Amino acid sequence: MAKLLFLQNIDYEFLGPMYISAMVKKSDHECRLTLGQTITDFQSELESLKPDIIGFSTMSGSHRWAVEMARTIKRDYGIPTILGGAHPTFFPQVIEETGVDMILRGEGEESVLELLNRIDARQSLTDIPNIWFKNGTVYKNDLRSLRFNLDDYPFPDRSLYDSLNGKLDRSVRNVITSRGCPWHCSFCFEDTMREIYEGKGKYVRIRTIDKVIEECIELKSSTEVRVIYFADDVFGMSKKWLYEFLPRYKHEVGLPFICLVRADIVASDRDYAFRLAEGGCQSVFFGVESGNEELRNRILVKQLSDKHIKEAAKNLHESGIPFRTYNIVALPGERLDDAFSTVELNIAIKTDYPWCSVFFPFPGTALTRHAIDQGFLDKDFDPEKLTKSFFTESKLITNDIHQLENLQKFFQTAVLLPWTFSIIKKLIKLPPNIFFIIWFGLVYFYVYWKSERRSFWKTLFFAFKNYRHVLSKQ
């Protein structure tokens, strides 16, 4: 049978490769994943497994490592390579890079299975849905229809990351109960993904309660999981589903959980937060993005009022659930006072775990197109210029950009220690520097550790090994 080897340069469990691995192993293909940074790190596995194809799951910015590694693999071993994930989905031109033989756009389980089946049968690879294939000519294939019933997919293959044992706190494990998001936030890839899949079936799909419970029970019985992280774009978007799910989860699984929610859903029903708490929820995450309501709704299309945010925070505080907020500074058209209002709103709602990035112009998103149209990005803006981290610097052409970049470094400090905000307003007038980045890294680690409820020492080890993915500009 065909053999697929994923290569990855960050010590983290991603659901995408695990779902693909489970799908292809069900048909008796072999799938492994190896972690490392250089070709030397992968040499042993490459020579022992002799894979038929090398896979990379990539985001914009971090994709450059995958492209360079694909080039090296192709040169030294002659093994075909395929890039999947967000970057090739929205920037398929990456197939033109030397060493990249194929890209996978959109959801990948069925297409990768078909690819391995054809490799095994020595059949043509030029017309597989979701896959662009390069062989002198680039064959650009359309997307297959979305699978409506997510229960058809096998549970993620969590053994794929067993090499992380002892290196990473694996007591917190990701589970999804749905795919897709019905909202239209301009900064998010989901809205563009929905456009790509137009006419290809229902985009938002929710798994049955029985299957989610079964996966969680299996996870609990076969791993050291202590907390489940429901990594949906929005967990519990259907209250009917959620209110039936929570008591069953509490009774049959009984593990604490973390989830992402929307403030307007939490605000719409005071009972929502209390039911989450009763079901075992130990913290939630939700997006604020901007403290300027007009910017949040007109430019970011968040469809979320200040009233929603404040009411959600009130309900969560009363239910005893701490929360993390997601925020962005250096947005297209944002003034320094707008960014200050984002800090002030987080202080007002007493955010437990503030999180903030600079605006990252992901290719293909509506907000990136808006930034280019309005002159905040160059007309010939090249995604290849993106840094690997959205915590370092902005690519926007706008006033006060260095102060906005500096504010991001002190955002968490200002929210957690409001008395420092007046000092921070003066500090950010200094040129960006390494000391600001180091301070941000320390506070970011603290907030991440507290909000994720992971082991301190394993999280510290993870931070030292992977800090470049957060703090590096390259």
Structure description:
The chain folds into two domains: 3-140, 3-Layer(aba) Sandwich (Rossmann fold), CATH 3.40.50.280; 165-387, TIM Barrel (Alpha-Beta Barrel), CATH 3.20.20. The protein is an alpha/beta fold and 474 residues long. It has 19 helices and 15 strands.
Please describe the structure with a list of short key phrases separated by commas or semicolons.
Rossmann fold; 19 helices; 15 strands; 7-stranded mixed β-sheet
Share of helix, binned = 40-55%
Overall pLDDT: 91
CA(first)-CA(last) distance:
39 Å
- Supply the number of structural domains: 2
CATH class of the largest domain: Alpha Beta
| Count of strand segments | 15
Rg, alpha carbons: 22 Å
Shape: globular
Task: Identify the strand order in the major beta sheet.
Answer: 2-1-3-4-5-6-7
Please indicate the percent range of residues in DSSP E strands (runs of 2 or more): 5-15%
**What is the helix tally?**
19
CATH superfamily of the largest domain: Aldolase class I
Short note summarizing the structure:
The protein is α/β, with parallel strands linked by helices.
Give the secondary structure arrangement, pairings included.
Elements: E1 3-8, H1 15-26, E2 30-35, H2 39-49, E3 53-57, H3 63-77, E4 81-84, H4 86-90, E5 102-104, H5 109-121, E6 131-135, E7 137-140, E8 172-175, E9 178-179, H6 189-196, E10 205-206, H7 209-222, E11 227-230, H8 239-252, E12 257-260, H9 263-268, H10 270-279, E13 281-289, H11 293-299, H12 306-319, E14 323-329, H13 336-348, E15 353-358, H14 366-373, H15 401-416, H16 421-427, H17 434-452, H18 456-466, H19 468-471
Parallel strand pairs: 1-2, 1-3, 3-4, 4-5, 8-11, 11-12, 12-13, 13-14, 14-15
Antiparallel strand pairs: 5-6, 6-7, 9-10
Helix pairs in contact: 1-5, 8-10, 10-12, 13-15, 15-16, 15-17
